[in-house]
Amino acid sequence: MGRVHSSHSARLIVVGGHTRAVGKTSTIEHILRARRGERWTAVKISAHRHAHADGSAPRVEEATEASPLTQTGRYLEAGASRALLCRTPDTRLPETAALLQRLLAGGHRVIVESNRIVSLVHADVVLFLVAPALDDWKLSSGACLTRADALVSTGRSALVAAALAARGAGVDNRPVFRMDGDRRVHGLDAWLDARLARARGTARAHTAMRVGAHPAASAVPHYEW
Length: 225
Prior knowledge:
This protein has a single domain, classed as P-loop containing nucleotide triphosphate hydrolases (Rossmann fold, 3-Layer(aba) Sandwich). Helices cover about 30% and strands about 20% of the residues. The protein is built from six helices and ten strands. Helix 4 (about 140-145) links the parallel strand 8 and strand 9.
């Protein structure tokens, strides 16, 4: 299956990070709070503790109540119109990418918490969380870092640069946004507004040049959720 393309009326943001507890969910909460009323669907893609050894199909659970106790509940509290948990083993990631495709084709704005999905989607924006004090770097973080448009961290920019350099990577002129103790990401909102506006303009121009660029409904893999 090819990568998922977002339509000119939809948005796709991917938020990843190098390990657990670096602020990925908090960053998504920040974005959702700044965009209340825009009806974003927030999706958490998880393999941790939920991977299926037998390679069975992904399990999709939709949160029904806002709650600070779960990631999807936190999405709803922050203003998401829907919140989904996709428990997906690596071998079945294309099916979760197909779910995102269906959401985008339906005009949803979608924000996804995942490293692994970046290889299967064309996101309008990819954000990558870095905690310089944490040495654990997941294998899945490399591809997400490479594709990241901007970095978010609780550490100073110099520490972020040093942490990346230790792993043969660099900031590469990408902005680094600082998350404060209240989990607010300073400067992110205005930058994100500009990136999404640019993506919308590019997509509209692309659609105008290629009539029928989006797949017919019959070409979208069927996925029950």
